[in-house]
Structures are given as C-alpha cells and as structure tokens.
Design brief:
Beta-Lactamase, elongated, disordered C terminus, 15 helices, single chain, Heat Shock Protein 90, five-stranded mixed β-sheet, Helix Hairpins, disordered N terminus, binds adenosine-5'-diphosphate, alpha+beta
C-alpha cells in the first residue's frame, strides 16, 4: 500500500550534533514518507516501514542491497518505480547527508506523487483542449461574422435599387425576392444557432407522433426541389413498398432530412446525381442520402458531426455555412433513438449519409400522409394585438396584419399590453414571450385564455409563425 504523504516537512535534516541515534531512528521510523539510509557506496542500511511498502519489499530484502539509483546529497529527483503487476509508481526523492552508526551516510526521503502526476497530466490535457476550443471559437466567430455580413450587402443593394427605380415593377419584384431570400438565409443561420444552444442545454422537446417515412422523405424533397433545379442535379428516390411508420417529431426529422439533402446539393458540382433511398432493415428503417459530389476524407467522416467542424476543401468552404447542421442532425436523430453516420470513399468520390430509425410496431398498419396545415379562413377580420418590445419588428408585423385586412394594435411593454388588451379585447395576441418577465406572462395568461393556450402549446417561434401567411412561414 502507498503511504499517505506526511504533512510534516518531507526533508528531515541530519540529526543535530549530540542527538541520540535512537531518537533519530524513532523520528524516521514513524515518518509517512519512505525513508532510506544509504551508504555513500549505494548500499541500503535502513528502510522505514513506509519505504518497505512503497518499494514493495521487506526491510530484510532491502537492507544490505544496492539501492540501484544514483543518489546525490541536495538533489530532488523523480523516479518511476515499475512493479511486477505493471503498475508504475512515481516517487519524488530528496536526499540529505546524515550519519548512521557513526559513519557518513545519505538519507533519502521517498514520496509517492503518482496521484499528483495523474492530476498534472489531466490538467495539461484540459489546458490543451481549452486552447483548441478557444481557437475553434475564434474561428467560429470570424466565420459567423462573415456569414451574417454576407446577406447584408445584397439586402442594402436591393433597398438602394428600389429607392432609385421604385417605379419599375419588375425590378422591384426582383429586389424584393433578393431581400426575402437573404433574410431567410440569415434566419436559418440564427435558428440553427439557437437550436444548438437549446440542444446542449437539453431544452429541445420532441413532439412525437406516428410519422410516415414516405411522407417525410417526400416533404423534405419538395423543400429542396428549387435548389436541386438550380444546380441541375438528377434526383433518384426509392421508397419502401410497404407503409413504414416511425414514432417521431416530423418537424425535427424534416430538419434532419433537409440538412442532409441541402448538403448533398451544396457539396456536389452542377449536374450531379443525388439518390434518396428509404428501406426497411429489420426493426429499423434506413434513409440514405447519397451524392456523387466532393466526398469526404476518411479521417473527417466522424469529425464533421462535431460542432463548427467543416472540411476545408475550397469548394466546401466556399459554400458558407457554420458547421452546425450535422451536429444538430445527429443530436436530433439520437433523440429519436436512431443513428446518423457518414460514408465516403474519399475526396471526389461522393458521400452517403445514413439515418437509421426504429420502426414503430403499432403504427405500421396504415400509411396516412402527414396532415397539411389548415388553409387560412379568408374574409374573417380579427382584432389582433401585437406585443413586442422590438419596435421595428412590432410595427412591421402590425402593418402586415393590417394589409391582410385585420384590425391591429401594438403594445411595446407588458403593462401597455395589459391596458390595451382590456380596452381593445383582441381575438388574437401575438406575444414576443422573450420580451416579458415571467410574472407579466402569467398575468397575461390568466387575463386572456387564448394567450394561456398559446403558452402551453406553442413555442415563441410558432406563435410568430402562426401570424405569417403560409409562404412566409418556415
Ligand atoms: P455546413 O454545411 O453549414 O458547413 P454541416 O454541419 O451541415 O455544416 O456540415 C459540416 C461539413 O461536413 C461541411 O462543411 C462539409 O465540409 C461536410 N459535408 C457535409 N455534407 C457533405 C456532403 N454531402 N459531401 C461532402 N461534404 C459534406
């Protein structure tokens, strides 16, 4: 057994002149550090109990033997002591001159510092990891600024053009599309960032329901169709003959599929071939998204699922993005008890992403398509109260609502919202939950049953989405 290090100084001095050897022996006998008395020629003269247990030898085995390690008075050395069981004990040895039975000798104190060494090594590794994380964070911030800055130039240009040539309706329409597309890009980026932070804090909850694999794949494909067309990719889809259902959150799985399909489109040169295959594999269904694009180095095939990780080929880099999508996708698939892996034979040889999800046994009977959101009821004018402390956002939303033919009022603070609600009696309140204290939310939720139901059923984004026409919602 390794002795506990003593709290007393590990470095006993030579006995004071005239001190009896018996007293000196007693002192070192009870020391928690191993104590060896060694003759100048290296022969061990004495070993205290702590030394015998540290060296795993009895006193009789040690005394009379050569110590085997060169020792010099005044030195502090670290020694690795290998044991027969393969364990290595790291010992700190300090040596002082002493006298033993009237002869000059060396007194070596031995302290087991193995635990300290392990902690030091762990600390060194942590520091190295932190340095890498810090560098990654710096790179990420640079990339994020770049990605957020990118859409601003076309938006500003479009606004200038509309100001200069506002009377040209065709041009105005084109510029409006530019703004809309760029804002969508930014919104997707920010949504992904928010999702990542929610996932790492365990804040994402799945809304599970029976989901048809066929519908899931088809809906995802519809979302990326414009991108596929823009790059003139060929798409091949194979779906299971049998109805296959999984117990899943359709919104989140669509997010996964969209990411994989988007990537396949992005990382494949124009006119490529993209294949989507969904097939039953025992108790699971596997959805494969395969492309014949730039491919992925073998050593990066796992790393790309790490946060902010991108393969740095020039084509990959030139596609923008933040290296978040696959992290999110894998986390979401794991939350569904599934797996997501990448395969590629290497650069230039295309990539394949495999999503494996457990099939829902009870729900395998029917393959009912996913319900579409109900169409907006035309004609009915509602009283809508927009509550948001972000003035431009509240004012522009109110303008849209009025353009749709509804009555709309705006409140920029909690107390204003309560006051306005009492007078205006809105049918619908669009409340930016983040802007108000919990106390205010609960006051509003008690005062207005509709708000209460919004709180309990919808996320902040869904409430806002509910306010937008279908073509504007994500
Ligand atoms: P982003 O695409 O925004 O960079 P992702 O997390 O979706 O972020 O992907 C991480 C990286 O994985 C990409 O930057 C790219 O280098 C690589 N990658 C993803 N999908 C593919 C693919 N289909 N072909 C080649 N590389 C890919």
């Amino acid at each position: 057994m390794t002795p506990e290090p003593s709290q007393s100084p590990a470095n006993p001095q030579s006995p004071p002149p005239g001190a009896s050897e018996a007293r000196f022996r007693k002192l070192i006998e009870s020391n928690a550090d191993g104590m060896l008395v060694v003759r100048p020629d290296g022969t061990i003269r004495y070993a205290n109990p702590a030394a015998t247990s540290l060296l795993n030898r009895s006193a009789s085995e040690l005394v009379g033997r050569f110590f085997g390690i060169p020792i010099l008075a005044g030195e502090t050395t670290e020694i690795d002591l290998p044991f027969r069981d393969g364990k290595v004990v790291v010992v700190e040895m300090r040596v002082v001159e002493t006298e033993w039975e009237g002869e000059p000798a060396l007194l070596a104190s031995l302290r087991d510092i193995s635990d300290r060494k392990i902690l030091e090594e762990e600390l060194r590794q942590k520091i190295a990891e932190l340095a890498v994380a810090d560098q990654r964070k710096d790179e990420f911030l640079a990339m994020l600024s770049h990605e957020l800055r990118n859409p601003l130039a076309p938006i500003l240009n479009a606004v200038h053009i509309m100001r200069l040539r506002g009377d040209d309706q065709v041009l105005r329409e084109r510029m409006r599309d530019v703004v809309e597309q760029q804002v969508r890009c930014m919104a997707r980026l920010v949504d992904d960032l928010l999702d990542v932070s929610r996932i790492t804090r365990g804040k994402i909850q799945l809304r599970l329901e029976p989901v048809s694999v066929t519908s899931l794949v088809q809906r995802s494909i519809e979302t990326v169709r414009p991108l596929l067309a823009a790059k003139m990719h060929e798409l091949h889809v194979t779906l299971p003959d049998e109805p296959v259902r999984i117990w899943a959150d359709p919104v989140r799985l669509e997010q996964v599929m969209n990411n994989l399909l988007n990537n396949a489109v992005k990382y494949t040169d124009k006119g490529g071939r993209i294949e989507v295959v969904a097939e039953v594999d025992g108790d699971d269904v596997t959805i494969r998204v395969k492309d014949d694009g730039i491919g992925i180095d073998r050593e990066m095939q796992e790393a790309i699922f790490g946060l902010f990780t991108q393969v740095d080929h020039s084509l990959a880099r030139s596609q923008g993005g933040l290296g978040i999508g696959l992290t999110l996708a894998r986390n979401l698939v794991h939350m569904h008890n599934g797996s997501l892996v990448a395969r590629s034979d290497g650069p230039g040889l295309g990539s394949e992403f495999l999503v494996k999800l457990p099939i829902s046994k009870e729900e395998i009977k029917a393959d009912v398509p996913l319900p579409s959101p109900p169409p907006p009821t035309p004609g009915a004018s509602r009283r809508v109260l927009v509550v948001d402390d972000n003035l431009p956002s509240a004012d522009s939303l109110s303008l849209i609502i009025k353009l749709w033919g509804h009555e709309c009022r705006v409140a920029h603070s909690g107390p204003d919202a309560l006051e306005e609600a009492a007078v205006f009696r809105p049918d619908v309140i669009l409340l930016d939950i983040g802007a108000f204290s919990l106390r205010m939310q609960s006051v509003l939720s008690v005062a207005l049953p509709l708000v209460k139901s919004l709180f309990s059923h919808l996320s902040r984004r869904m409430i806002l989405d509910a306010s937008l026409p279908k073509r504007q919602s994500k």
